[in-house]
Every structure is written in C-alpha cells, then in structure tokens.
Amino acid sequence: MLDSSDSAAGVNAWIRTGSTVADGESALITFTSAIGALSDCAIVARHLVYRGVEDPRPAAPGLAPAAGAGVFIFSCADVDTYAIVFIPSFRSDLLLTSGPGAGILIDQESSDVLAFTDIMISDIFCNPFGVQVTALESAYYQWRP
After folding, report:
1. Which end of the chain has fewer beta carbons closer than 10 Å to its terminal beta carbon, N or C?
2. To which H or E segment does residue 84 belong?
C-alpha cells in the first residue's frame, strides 16, 4: 500500500492451515478490497503466504543458531532487479573452508545448495514485485540477531 507521498505500508492477515490456494487467493482479493475501502492508500501488491505447522513438531537436526543466516541474492528477469532469501540456522558445513571468503561465502557447488538454487530459478518463485527469479548472484553467511 502506498500513501500520497509514496510511503509504503502493509496489512497482514493469515488463513487457516489446510485452506486451498484458490480459497486463499479469493479471500485475499476480498480482504484487500475491504482494506481499500477503509484506507486512503493505493493497494499496489498482494502477498499470499501459505503456512503449515508440523505436528508433532520435530527436533532441530543440528546445532546452528537461528541468528546465523544464509543469505542468497538472486537476479531476476528484469534488469537490475533482485530477490533475497534468508535461511535461518544455516549449516556451517555449507560454507567455503579455504581461500578468500572462507567461513563467510556459501559453497555454491554443494549438492544441497545447487538443489535449492535449481528450485528457486526453475519454479514459480519471484521477487516481491512479481519478477521471475533467474540466477544466483551471491550467497554468504550473516549473523542476524
């Protein structure tokens, strides 16, 4: 949502687990129409996030702290557009172990990293503005308290 000065704002709402994507999209359209009637902002984007809850909740498979994140920067189909993905509790064994960037840069040749990259660029993923993700540009470790 943008106001008359182009300042951005947003409204969040959640749908029940088990709802279909079609139901979520329909509810989102209805929801944003209702919000639009209550606000002087222009609605410029809609975001549907589907969340699932594991039951029973599994234990974490490793000891990496949640604040240690893998940061992946992808270029998109439009020139000078990007998508950034943060992955919390990033596995330290996926970082380069030698050379410049050791312990900071993510090993982009790791099979797990390659699988993630392939999913991001060959599926339906886009940046927040709806521009298709096309290539991994950079990947590094960052402490995000």
Report:
1. C
2. strand 82-87
- Residues 141/104, Cβ–Cβ less than 8 Å: yes
pTM of the complete model: 0.70
Residue type, 60: A
Q: What is the dihedral of CA 26, 28, 33, 34, to 10 degrees?
A: 110
Please state the domain extents for the chain.
1-58, 68-143
| Residue 101: band (very low, low, confident or very high) from pLDDT cuts 50, 70, 90 | very high
- Burial annotation 75-109 (CB, 10 A radius, 16+ → b, else e): bbeeeebebebeeeebbeebbbeeeeeeeeebbee
- Looking at residues 36-63, what average pLDDT do you find? 80
